[in-house]
Amino acid sequence: GISICGSGNGISMTVNKHQGIRAALCWNEEIASLARQHNNANVLSLPARFISEEQALRMVDVFFSTDFEGGRHQGRIDKIPQC
Predict the structure, then answer these.
(1) Which residues are designated catalytic?
(2) What contacts 24+ positions apart, CB below 8 Å, involve 40-44?
């Protein structure tokens, strides 16, 4: 998914309250890629006031085309309660 607000912080905190959501606040393509690779993020949170439309579109492309690496990173995900 994609979430957007001025700074990206408020919406990221809000969506992360929902079961099964792992939202990552991203401000460039590298962070968007790492959010997927290392944290298996499933929601991209964007700071609308601080990025251009072109940057946002590039991050969306990177986010949705990057796979989770698993392996040593899976332990982090396993620690998140799935109640």
Answers:
(1) 5, 38
(2) 40/68, 40/73, 40/77, 42/1, 43/1, 43/2, 43/3, 43/12, 43/15, 44/1, 44/2, 44/3
